[in-house]
Design brief:
Distance between the termini: 29 Å
Strand order of the largest sheet: 1-7-5-4-2-3
Number of strands: 17
Shape: globular
Number of helices: 26
Largest sheet: 6 strands, parallel
């Protein structure tokens, strides 16, 4: 603590907490990197990908050289920095590194500066208070931070220096005491020991308070403003924004929403801010019809809460989408009949529903949203509609931002073992370009396959009654023999299975609504490892998860062979043999 306090002394001399963050992106970030060679490290998320695409556009415009490396975990982050870090003095990290002590992990030279554009919360305190090498980019207009006092976390000042350095100086004090005891008068010795006891007691109280403050600060993990929106804001302030960059920002926001990283209130707030830019950049062209046809258009409308329905069949989308699948309970015969009854109610024949949406009759495509909305309340589909952005280029079909987010996520986390992480990343990056329709279609097909795998796995869980109420949480495990197990080796997809299963299970049995879900799946058969993720209970309104801290304490308590390599807190990798021991420890931790 003493060493960190001394390295953070520059903060104490500053005027206030707002200087701990980069708020003026143009002056405090872009002007400092524009004439430098950069290393850009990007997490495997659609939001991070979109933020990277916007930053790339700005750097290309100013002929800035950079090295781009995708990272899928802390180990990958270390390897990337070891390989490329000696070539640069400025490192940009997108959706990675904010939640860990990057200076401790990467061990950089003192003249290396890190710029963190990370939506993960809470941010690691050492990253916040170290202004010399770590600069955190946040949106102060939409986010507030309840930070602890500097002196409560790091020893500073003459009194706290004594507290923090008590253990370090203990041996020296013992030697000094031996020498001085022979010289000191006998009446002064009790006072010296009393002073030492007071110092030790003060230290114990400070450490206890420090632990309580840190526990409270790190307790909940959640997400802040999308990194892609921060990068679009930078492009706007540089007067280099355009419709394409705005679309990338919108897709990043949609990625947060479809993966339940933010709640609806946060989504509506950010969507409202984005909509102002849509109105500004997408005004009707006055240069003629040709200019309008060849430009990208962005619109906002109420859309159906159905996954990929514009690029799939309506029936498959209704059957496999989380919202409608759970409401109809399509894993039962009764639920499947109810779905067909619903389609008959809205007047769409099965022959039409099982055709690709683009091939359906024009009248059906035009009116399907209105027809579904009219019958939604009768079938308990009150939240079937939500506000969504879409884009259209030329005469191509409309693409919703949520569908694009699913497409990018599927490309990033493709189960194909032939392609590397870098291959998947650059393929997804290229799919964002308006001209790469082939990659877009490939991503949409992968997203459909992924959604089918998730839906079928949930159906299998419920049919076998596998979710087990462990008292403090509900637990389920994807067996190695399952046909879709290869899709669930990535935490992003496993989180989707967990949320789908939690909603389906809570509709089947309402007794477990207040309990979080813990889901595991085989990761590497040769190494005998499994991946475990935690999903907060359905009653958690703010999309904040305490399971990351619970996993950390459970792993320490059980002393299992655990690896925490993910940037998400509620993810842990274990040996398969240690799974039950870890779950027992987790149950004990959650009961406290």
């Amino acid at each position: 603590c003493v060493e960190k306090a001394r390295s953070f002394q520059t903060w104490q001399c500053g005027p206030g907490w707002n200087e701990m963050f980069v708020e003026n992106f143009k002056d405090e970030f872009y002007t400092k990197i524009i004439n430098q060679r950069l290393l850009i490290l990007v997490a495997l998320e659609a939001d991070a990908l979109c933020a990277c695409k916007i930053l790339q556009s700005l750097l290309h415009a100013d002929n800035v050289q950079y090295t781009l490396v995708p990272v899928d975990g802390i180990g990958s982050l270390q390897r990337a920095f070891e390989e490329h870090g000696d070539q640069v003095k400025h490192v940009v990290m997108i959706n990675c590194g904010g939640g860990v002590d990057i200076l401790d992990i990467l061990q950089p030279q003192q003249d290396v500066t890190f710029y963190l554009i990370d939506s993960h919360r809470p941010l690691f305190l050492d990253n916040i208070f170290n202004q010399d090498q770590v600069r955190l980019m946040v949106d102060s207009d939409t986010e507030t931070f309840e930070l602890p006092e500097f002196d409560d976390i790091y020893a500073s000042g003459s009194e706290d220096d004594d507290v923090g350095s008590d253990d370090e100086d203990k041996e020296d004090e013992d030697e000094e005491e031996e020498q001085s005891e022979s010289e000191e008068p006998a009446e002064k010795r009790p006072r010296r020991k009393e002073s030492q006891h007071r110092r030790q007691r003060r230290k114990r109280l400070w450490l206890r308070r420090r632990e309580e403050i840190q526990h409270k600060y790190y307790y909940y993990a959640y997400r802040g403003t999308a990194s892609s929106l921060l990068m679009f804001d930078l492009s706007w302030k540089l007067s280099k924004d355009n419709v394409d960059l705005l679309w990338y920002g919108i897709v990043g926001l949609a990625d947060q929403y479809v993966h339940c990283l933010i709640d609806r209130e946060k989504y509506v707030t950010d969507a409202g801010n984005v909509h102002n830019h849509v109105l500004r950049l997408c005004r009707s062209d006055t240069e003629g019809a040709a200019a309008s046809i060849n430009s990208r258009k962005i619109g906002f409308d109420n859309e159906l809460c159905l996954t990929l329905y514009r690029h799939w069949t309506l029936y498959d989308s209704l059957y496999h989408s989380e919202y409608t699948s759970c409401r109809f309970k399509v894993w039962t015969v009764k639920g499947q009949k109810k779905l067909q009854e619903f389609l008959a109610e809205i007047g769409i024949p099965l022959t039409q529903c099982k055709q690709k949406f683009s091939c359906m009759d024009v009248e059906v495509k035009t009116n399907v949203r209105e027809w579904i909305t009219k019958s939604s309340q009768k079938y308990g589909l009150d939240d079937i509609m939500f506000g969504s952005f879409h884009t259209q280029f030329g005469y191509c079909n409309k693409v919703r931002a949520e569908d694009m987010a699913h497409c990018l996520s599927a490309l990033l986390h493709s189960p194909d073992k032939v392609q590397s992480v870098s291959d998947n990343f650059h393929e997804a990056l290229d799919a964002l370009m308006r001209t790469n329709t082939d990659l877009l279609q490939k991503g949409l097909r992968l997203a459909q396959d992924q959604q089918i795998a998730i839906s079928c796995q949930v159906k299998s869980f419920i049919d076998m009654r596998q979710p087990i109420n462990a008292g403090q949480f509900v637990y389920a495990h994807v067996d190695m023999s399952m046909p879709y197990v290869r899709h669930f080796r990535k935490s992003t997809t496993l989180f989707q299975v967990g949320r789908f299963l939690m909603n389906a299970w809570n509709l089947t049995t309402k007794r477990a609504q207040a309990l979080p879900f813990v889901l595991s799946a085989p990761m590497d058969a040769e190494l005998g490892t499994c991946l475990i993720v935690g999903i907060p209970s359905i009653l958690e309104e703010q999309h904040k998860s305490f399971l990351g801290r619970a996993f950390e304490h459970a792993a320490a308590r059980s002393q299992v062979r655990a690896k925490r390599d993910s940037f998400d807190a509620a993810v842990i990798e274990l040996k398969m043999d240690d799974r039950m021991e870890f779950c027992d420890a987790l149950s004990h931790v959650l009961s406290l």
